[in-house]
Design brief:
267 residues, 3% strand, two-stranded antiparallel ribbon, mainly alpha
Length: 267
């Protein structure tokens, strides 16, 4: 289950999406997520699905990798669907005990499910095709104007980069601890919800200890290498826009414009 979390991992291959500037991928992901919540009709979702499938195909990331990443949000997806089904007011369709499923609830639950799946998949495509260093450089470059109002842009970008790096490391560490605990007789599966939560304590304590130890080792290594954040830092690989990046920006604008136009014509 832990290895099914693909967010934060990098998939090594050579594709058009991998070669894009990280700023393009960050802006595209943000625009894609915003479009999911701004466009509130099925035409917009179909268009978003086509756009997402095209990007995944160009990225050369196996679709099975994307499907595997969905397993980590199954519980969240079910909760969102159930809440929308039973808590949305409208025309009654089915009554189960004291709970009523409405027509509006079914529609809203479907939209929420599509939004969550597309949101996680779109974010995963960005992290799977971009290294943490590239994400840091791209984010820092995009937020550079905020330096004028004394926002520590470099430090924020560095913290996000370190957090993304630690996701696969902590997942691997958790898997090792779980296997070690199971070998010693620990049971993480049986019992009710409260019992399962209690069974997680022997797992969480060594995990937190390991996380703090790794953080301390990282801080010591950065100090030993005389790391100093902030201004006047140079880049070994400075970010430069190429023709493919401008074409990608054009594709994003076309996607957004098509969604708005079709939404106004059909609704």
């Amino acid at each position: 289950m832990l290895k099914d979390i693909t967010l934060g991992q990098y998939y090594q291959t050579d594709s058009v999406i991998h070669r894009l500037d990280p700023r393009v991928k960050l802006v595209t992901t943000i625009c894609f997520i915003i479009s999911l919540f701004v466009v509130d009709n099925w035409v917009g979702y179909v268009l978003a699905g086509v756009f997402l499938v095209l990007v995944i195909a160009l990225s050369k990331v196996p679709p099975s990798f994307m499907v595997r990443g969905m397993k980590s949000i199954v519980f969240l997806l079910i909760m969102a669907v159930v809440c929308n089904l039973f808590l949305t007011q409208g025309e009654p369709l089915v009554t189960i005990w004291k709970l009523t499923i409405t027509k509006e609830g079914v529609i809203q639950a479907g939209k929420m499910a599509v939004r969550l799946v597309f949101l996680i998949t779109g974010s995963s495509v960005m992290t799977l095709t971009t290294t943490p260093n590239q994400l840091t450089d791209g984010l820092e470059k995009l937020l550079k104007p905020l330096n004028a109002i004394r926002v520590p842009v470099h430090e924020i970008a560095m913290m996000m980069s370190i957090a993304l790096r630690f996701i696969p490391i902590l997942i691997e560490e958790t898997d090792k601890i779980m296997k070690a605990q199971i070998a010693r007789g620990a049971d993480f599966e049986s019992g009710n919800l409260i019992q399962k939560a209690k069974n997680m304590v022997p797992l969480l304590v060594p995990l937190f200890v390991s996380a703090f130890r790794r953080a301390n080792d990282l801080a010591t290594a950065m100090e030993a290498r005389c790391y100093r954040g902030g201004e006047n830092r140079t880049k070994m690989k400075p970010l430069i826009y190429h023709r493919r990046d401008y074409l990608a920006y054009g594709a994003v604008v076309l996607y957004l414009a098509t969604g708005v136009v079709l939404g106004r014509i059909l609704f």
